[in-house]
């Protein structure tokens, strides 16, 4: 599972990173609100730990913008503010949970596990965008009512893109989450490009609305773009 930690206090950020890595999570640190907003729009994460007090744009402003863009990644807000009004403001901005500093690391882990369980429980057995539909039970995929014959890897790749619809998915994320490899390599990058090309031919060939897009130098995104 990939976690984005948005925290400008370096000691706190490094302590969170060390603890989460020790629990088997992949961790990305980001010290600013602007940087966090860019990362969330260009990379896929399973959970975001978001400090409120950040340089520049504060955490709740970032959170509100993220939700406006339709990004549904679970967000756990971390803050020293403990009034009812602060909690309500955080939840109204789109937070899934709220944890007041200082906190026990064990409690943080429990909150993260709860958010991950909630996300899996909420996952529908059918995914789709535009006229593309995926049935996770029968493992059937259709576009405009026509069945698409996908390999196992193509199905897993499309499933991951659908789970992160509208978000740019990096090659690193695909390496870890679809190919289940520990690190990228030039060979694996080529394999990913080949699979994306094949999947794009099956999904988008002869279709007016293209769904699979390459973001040069970053990764790929599944979104509905009118011609």
What is shown here, in short?
It is built from eight helices and twelve strands.
Write up this protein:
The chain is α/β, with parallel strands linked by helices and 227 residues long. The protein has 2 domains: 2-122, Rossmann fold; 126-225, Winged helix-like DNA-binding domain superfamily/Winged helix DNA-binding domain (Arc Repressor Mutant, subunit A, Orthogonal Bundle), CATH 1.10.10. 43% of the residues lie in helices and 23% in strands. The chain is built from 8 helices and 12 strands. It has helices spanning 10-22, 33-42, 59-68, 84-92, 105-122, 152-163, 171-177, 186-204; strands spanning 2-6, 26-30, 47-51, 75-79, 97-100, 126-129, 132-135, 140-143, 146-147, 169-170, 210-215, 219-225. The strands form 3 sheets. Strands 2-1-3-4-5 form a 5-stranded parallel sheet, with helices on both faces. Strand 4 (75-79), helix 4 and strand 5 form a beta-alpha-beta unit. Helix 2 packs parallel to helix 3 (59-68) and helix 6 crosses helix 8. It is elongated.
């Amino acid at each position: 599972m990939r976690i984005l930690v948005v925290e400008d206090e370096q000691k706190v950020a490094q302590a969170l990173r060390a603890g989460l890595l020790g629990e088997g999570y992949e961790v990305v640190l980001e010290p600013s609100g602007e940087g966090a907003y860019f990362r969330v729009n260009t990379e896929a994460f399973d959970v975001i730990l978001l400090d409120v007090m950040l340089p520049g744009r504060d955490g709740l402003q970032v959170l509100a913008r993220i939700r406006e863009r339709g990004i549904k990644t679970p967000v756990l807000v971390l803050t020293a503010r403990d009034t009812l009004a602060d909690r309500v403001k955080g939840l109204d901005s789109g937070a899934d949970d709220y944890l007041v500093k200082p906190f026990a690391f064990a409690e943080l882990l429990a909150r993260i596990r709860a958010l991950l369980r909630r996300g899996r429980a909420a996952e529908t057995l059918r995914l789709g965008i535009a006229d593309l539909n995926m049935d996770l039970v029968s493992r059937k995929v259709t576009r405009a009512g026509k069945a698409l014959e996908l390999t196992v890897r193509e199905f897993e790749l499309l499933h991951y893109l659908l789970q992160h619809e509208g978000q740019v998915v990096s090659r690193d994320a695909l390496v870890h989450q679809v190919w289940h490899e520990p690190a990228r390599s030039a060979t694996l990058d080529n394999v990913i490009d080949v699979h994306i090309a094949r999947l794009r031919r099956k999904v988008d060939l002869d279709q007016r609305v293209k769904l699979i897009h390459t973001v040069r130098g970053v990764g790929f995104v599944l979104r509905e773009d009118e011609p």
